[in-house]
Amino acid sequence: MDIQMLKTNYQIEEIKTKKEALESKMSNIHNGENMSQLSSDLNYYSQLYFHTQSIQNSIKKYEEAENILKESNDKELIELANQEIEDVEEKIKEEEESIKKLKIEREFTDVDDNRSAILEIRAGAGGDEASLFAAELFNMYKNFALKNGWEIQIIDSSVTEGGGYKEVIAHINGKNVFKKLKYESGVHRVQRVPVTESSGRIHTSTASVAILPEAKEIDIQINPEDIRIDVMRASGAGGQCVNRTDSAVRITHFETGIVVSCQETKHQAQNKEKAMALLRSRLYEKKRQEEADKRSNMRSSQIGGGMRAEKIRTYNFPQNRITDHRVKKSWHNIEEVLSGDLEKLTNDVIDGIQLELLKNEK
């Protein structure tokens, strides 16, 4: 182990100075300063200080143990010193790995990571089977949301007679929702024998998933003259009337042509509020992508491209295998994942995509 290089790579004074400066700023914060950014920076430097200090302490122990090996003839002391060196080397490796993960996470922190999100799922190729798959994906994300203590509310949906979804849009409210789910956007593909298939032939169907960061009124301001609001009676599968009042709301944004709707509650005002929230998030996402495309630093657009990639994942039922094509990794617990056990999969995908983007930057 190159102790001199470790000393050079993990100097603590600069980190300590930065940490203390941020602590001072936090205790004397003024109006107009970005509290969220300051808190994020302080958390990063506090963790970096902790792990670097641990490495520095381990270096001292390593040097003390080496001195014992050089100066002592006591077999018991020599044995203890060798064991200490072995333990310290393992500890330093663990701390270096922690620092690496910390720096990767900071490098790929999105300003929207701590936001709630809008989930949109649409059935693609495959007819009724695609709509049933869309419903399974929605239930998967719904259960995952509940496991994380998030709230989920449907904004709009189009249900088929077979119980699937042609389309479902929902708001997921909670901490770090966008951070956890942002790489779920793209085309999801399922391969299995549909219940309606008498010959036992495997069908391939698709559904698209979009994850948008929730936009607040302060992020996107919509002028009343820029939109048209239509109200109508809500309807369900097969045209069945859900209620007898004009509670459903559709909003058209003239400049972009974006149309959103909501009919999930019996109250027009609530539906309008949800539809406006959806419109803001769509406009915010459009703005995000336009800004990413303009940047000279290609990392943002690479991340955006990864999020919008076609056929990001395949759910193969005959082989009980889920494969994410972006990170070239598979998992063999398809039923558990579709029931909402997504934690390991999403973590693996986040780590894999970020490591790949780091390689591309070098």
TrEMBL record:
SUPFAM superfamilies, A to Z: Release factor (SSF75620)
Residue ranges of domain Prokaryotic-type class I peptide chain release factors in the record: 233-249
GO MF annotations, alphabetized: translation release factor activity
Record GO cellular component, one term: cytoplasm
Keywords annotated in UniProt: Coiled coil, Methylation, Protein biosynthesis
UniProt cross-references to Gene3D superfamilies, sorted A to Z: 3.30.160.20, 3.30.70.1660, 6.10.140.1950
Keyword Coiled coil found: yes
Coiled-coil region(s): 55-112
Cited InterPro entries: PCRF, Pep_chain_release_fac_I, Pep_chain_release_fac_I_sf, Prokaryotic/Mito_RF
NCBIfam families in alphabetical order: PRK00591.1
Stated family: Belongs to the prokaryotic/mitochondrial release factor family.
Its biological purpose: Peptide chain release factor 1 directs the termination of translation in response to the peptide chain termination codons UAG and UAA.
Protein name: Bacterial peptide chain release factor 1 (Brf-1), peptide chain release factor 1
Species for this entry: candidate division WS6 bacterium GW2011_GWC1_33_20
